[in-house]
Predict the 3D structure of the following.
Amino acid sequence: MLVGAIMILVAGFDPVETYLTLLKAAFGSPRGIGVTITNATPLLLAGLAVAIPFRCGLLNIGGEGQIYIGGLTATLAALYLPGLPFLLHLPLTLLAGFSGGALWGAIPGWLLAARKLNEVITTIMMNFIGFWLVSFLVHGPLKDPDSFGYAWTAEVPISAQIPLVFRTARINLGIALALICALLAYFLLWRTTLGYEMRAVAAQAQTARFAGIHVERTMILAMLIGGGLAGLAGAAVILGVQLRLSDFFSPGYGFTAIAVALVGRSSPLGVVLAALFFGALENGAGSIERSLGIPQGVASSIQGITLVFILASQSLTIAHWLQKRRTVQLAEHH
């Protein structure tokens, strides 16, 4: 925050006023709190999508692609299962979003388990495939004929929309869904056999294999669950906020989620707090640009600087994990 204050001074603005405005925008009104929580909801789900595979020793960099595929499958279920009652239609569309993301996450998991292909590379590549697949569909087969030139689908029916729980603040039920997923993630990691197996594989894959753990299956399941949560994030954005699928509906949630998971130390509770922090920062950065006239570059730089310092504080932890991963791979190779 001090380095950001120096940048604000150099740009010719008052840092105290800037930070107070940022804080007020994020938490100073019901509408501001609503925007912060709306920003935090997909970050929380996508952050869990990174944290769970990380607990298994895997880096899921494919959250963005999984978000787009989850948004796509949720939209298809919303548009092509018409006439269903709300209590059936919404759960089905959310399940479709989870399933689409799970499939997109399981593919690099299988490629790693069966073909030893690095999941970092495959998930990055699948980000591009997922995005451009959605882009092709919303510009072509799924484009709303009454869109007036916009590349998006028809609006999802009200029976598939996530309802508002606080209308004044514009907070929808998606945040409750995300918090439930965080609780389930905690239960999975610390209270189930699969969670124990994930943590054992992360600690030492070869030792876990000697102990009778099916390492490859555990890796695939970790990526499948992570991808499903990212897909659910995409579904939450489409069904609760955008209400239409377009090719730029995610402003990089999947990539910010990596920082959310690292800042939260891959703990479900930590991810919740980190998602709220990044949601508030995103809300506040936009507000200082609008209300104080601070250029977008400065506002974005404050976000970037904050992220760099937080991640730098964990650089030794990340480096240690990468070194351990490399040692395990060499041992298994020999």
